[in-house]
Amino acid sequence: MDLSERRVALSLFQLLALGIFGLLGLAVLSTDAYAGVVTTNSLLSTAKSAIAAQTGAHVVSMASSASSSSGEKIIADVGVTSGMEVISQGKAKLSVKVTTTGAYVSGNSSGLTTIFGFSAADANKVGSDWVFWKTGTSQYSNLKSDVTISSVLEVLPKAKGTKLSTRTVGGTKVYDLKWTTAATSSLPKLSNTLTISTNGSTLPTEEASAASDGAKVTTVFSKWGEHVLVSTPPASSTVAVARITG
Predict the structure, then answer these.
(1) Among candidate residues 221, 189, 176, the one with its CA nearest the CA of residue 61
(2) What are phi and psi of 100, to 5 degrees?
(3) In terms of Cα–Cα distance, which of 99, 140, 91, 139 is closest to 115?
(4) Would you give the DSSP letter of residue 133?
(5) What is the number of helices (H) and of strands (E) in the chain?
(6) CATH architecture of 3-245
(7) Which of 65, 100, 144, 207 is at 20 to 30 A from 32, Cα to Cα?
(8) Does residue 123 surpass a pLDDT of 80?
(9) Where are the domains of the chain?
(10) Is 170 helix (H, G, I), strand (E, B) or coil?
(11) What average pLDDT does the segment 46-72 reach?
């Protein structure tokens, strides 16, 4: 399988994200709440609509592992049709930009290999340039799905097995959705909490996930409604993926 068919290599955060998002999928929602009462179903339905209506958001994720001193940080600005993110894992750095005309990836040698999945030889060819995939390719679609607002919808769990509670933070009531994800052959058991604002927006503010092996991921959502503008790298610093892997 060549890199035009591959996604970003699975790191600690992405493995947990698969457990949190991929195994659960999007919720099958209903509106069975009666007037004045918020249920898990009704909250998920309202939050789904609220997220889908946003023009953008700022997302910061921090991951740590009990077995490694090298954590991971992802800073992303996700828009409707474009977005960007920077991933740091120890000394490894990777940047992703997606516009309506293409997707671009750049990073240092360890970022291109350990985070993205290039071979050392291909990473050497890339150097300090940006690798480019045009619209219509599988890699473009995969990268776009990671850095656009639709990806945030995937934080919503299934209603079944999810418990709803409320608490007060700084004098303001918030909703907490709690659920667990069973262990698999590749992932440990996960305990998850998604916090949703009650301040008129019904939008996620934070998600915390803890694995049975001690790994943790915390994701903070802010700047809802921001307009994300992604600049295209200079043509002189851009190289088509075919020139790297072909």
Answers:
(1) 221
(2) -75, -10
(3) 91
(4) E
(5) 6, 12
(6) Clam (2.50)
(7) 207
(8) yes
(9) 3-245
(10) coil
(11) 91
Q: Look at strands 190-197 and 172-181 and give their pairing.
A: antiparallel
**Burial class of 167 by CB neighbour count within 10 A (0 to 12, 13 to 18, 19+):** exposed
What is the spatial distance between Cα 178 and Cα 162, in angstroms, rounded to a whole number?
5
Of 15-29, 47-61, 225-239, the one with minimum mean pLDDT is 15-29
State the pLDDT confidence band at 5, using cuts at 50, 70 and 90: very low
Rounded to the nearest 5 degrees, what angle is found at the Cα of 15, between the Cα atoms of 9 and 21?
115
Six-digit token string for 163: 């418990």
On the question of pLDDT at 11 being above 90, the answer is no
CA distance 228 to 148: 10
pLDDT of residue 19 exceeding 60, the answer is no
Map residue 88 onto helix, strand or coil.
strand
SS3 assignment, position 189: coil
Is residue 213 pLDDT above 80, yes or no?
A: yes
- Tokens 């290999």 -> residue: 113
Listed in sequence order, the DSSP H helices in the chain are 12-17, 40-52, 109-110, 120-126, 138-146, 241-245
Residue 31 CB burial class (10 angstroms; 0-12, 13-18, ≥19): exposed
Instruction: Residue 85: name the closest of 64, 126, 114, 116 by CA.
Output: 116
Cα angle vertex 153, ends 149, 154, to 5°? 120
pLDDT of residue 36: 60
